[in-house]
Amino acid sequence: MGCRSSAVNNTTSTGGGTKTAPDFTVTTLSGTSINFNSDLKGKPLLINFEASWCGPCQLEAPVIVKAYQTYKDRIQFFGLAVQDSIEDQRAFAQKHGLEFPIGFDPDGMISYLYQKAGKVNYGGIPTTYFIDSEGSIVAFFLGPISEKTLDQKIQTLLAQEEEIKSSRSTATTSNTGTNGTGTT
User: How many domains is the chain partitioned into structurally?
Assistant: First the structure.
């Protein structure tokens, strides 16, 4: 797995059917165990695969930090350090002011599973996935993401969430018109 920094290598996607985000369990920098299904699913999520040794990740980090400051009350942010050491990742997080949880993908297997699930044709980091509250991959971006593109992807994710809430509300409303037996 290598970094990709050229604009030619930037890949972005939205749509294309439902792509379920793979479950994983990792240990974070703080030593906490995090499981995707039980700890992260249920609220919109941005997962950023990165590493301290990756030059494009260094360039992207301030953009991720700014988005986190803007959207942290509306979506979750989670970092996954790929093939990185705890010490190097801790220094990377401190250098860039990353305040959201960061877990470890020591052999790159989680990154690989997300590439397959998202139908990403290229590997590399940084890669950012945008996942709705139901655990579906809404979009991804391969390469260092710009502030403008990150904002657009987050807006797409938030719009997807509104559709999910609306469909849940419609289902709930149609069920509340009955006495529980299917009759009014």
Answer: 1
Written as six digits, the tokens of 183 are 């009759």
Q: What angle do CA 43, 9, 129 make, to 5 degrees?
A: 5
Q: What is the pLDDT of residues 55-83, one digit of tens each?
A: 999 999 999 999 999 999 999 999 999 99
Measured CA to CA, the distance from residue 93 to residue 95 in angstroms comes to 6
Residue 124 lies in a domain: yes
Name the residue range of residue 75's domain.
20-176
Output the domain CATH number for residue 99.
3.40.30.10
Helix (H) or strand (E) holding 81: strand 76-82
For 10-56, the pLDDT digits (tens) are 444 544 456 999 999 999 999 999 999 999 999 999 999 999 999 99
Report the predicted TM-score, pTM, of the whole model to 2 decimal places: 0.84
The long-range contacts involving 22-26, CB below 8 angstroms and separated by at least 24 positions, are 22/110, 22/113, 22/114, 22/117, 24/103, 24/110, 24/113, 26/80, 26/103, 26/104, 26/105, 26/110
